[in-house]
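$ fold --in a.seq
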Amino acid sequence: MGIEGVNQRIADIQSRMIAMQTQQAATTATRSATSNASGASFASQLQSAVASTQGTAAAEKTYKLNGKGVPEELVAYGNGKIPDDALTKVGETGHKLWAPAAENLNRMIEDAKREGVKIGITDSYRPFEEQVDLARRKGLYSQGGLAAKPGTSEHGWGMATDLDLNAKALNWMRTHAKDYGFTENVPRESWHWAFRPKTA
């Protein structure tokens, strides 16, 4: 990892720290606001403003990608070997994605929720060992199954998620997901959505 990579990691860590501080401030404001109706209105507006600010920063960031569209910082780790500190939780679930993908997914889920659309999540980052197990149990996609060849999965880069979508949510995703960097890119799998970061 060269000096540019180190600088990128520092910038990513600083960005996450700011996001965590902002989220903590929003949580504190929300808790104190529950005591009266006007406070609840303020908390709602504050959360919207915070989400909008975080989303703008995440959406404007660019990355150097390899020929397969994978960010160089992830290529350095290897598919299915992304360290925990490069991953971020998706909402209050146990799921994680590469931090920029998780931030955009969280923003998308919240925006959809404000429009009355529920987006659930059933799968996210998949370590190499899980990819091997999945291929064994569900077969390779190239042979009619549902799993990518281990070591090539978009889930292994922390850049893909499987979503729980009813018809309304699927239509919403097909209209809006691109605004958050997500694309439906696997035939036969309307639940699979991959994150495509902006290139530098």
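$ fold --in b.seq
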Amino acid sequence: MFRPRLLPEKSFPSYAYLPGKYPHPVRNPLGHSYRSDPVTVAVGEALGSDVFRWGIDLFNHGYYWEAHEAWEPLWQAAKQSAQHRLLFKGLILLAAAGVKIREGKRAAAARHATRAAGLFRQVVSPGGLFEKALGITPAALAEHAQAIVAYPVVLREPKPAQPEPVFDFILAPVSESV
């Protein structure tokens, strides 16, 4: 499956983090994101921000822990917008499910995916805003998340340092003016 880049000028991290396999990206001095500057984005700008788009690039290319970290500040900033908060938390949990799938932890992946599906089902997208930003409806994301539970992903030979996309869909904004 072709996986486009939204921010091709940004280099991917040197490894896709899996807990216990490589240095923690932000806490360990050898981590790929050690001493990264904190990010702040206003909720109204979040879906069109490079922070959000970087999270999509990371997610689509199998850097699930890193995608989770990219979206975390957006979720934290969304305290005044319940719908944005639900969407970002769902994306974070879906990324966490990706990490657990890569670790071979099916039960944990299913828990995260089930929680993500539940959140996506609660999302009401004002004027199709979220669909444009993701290229997929929150309801369809809920179905994809639930499919992880019904049909667990089994990796052939996990490659700990290499990113490995585990989902059969991609996130792709519909237009540049989100």
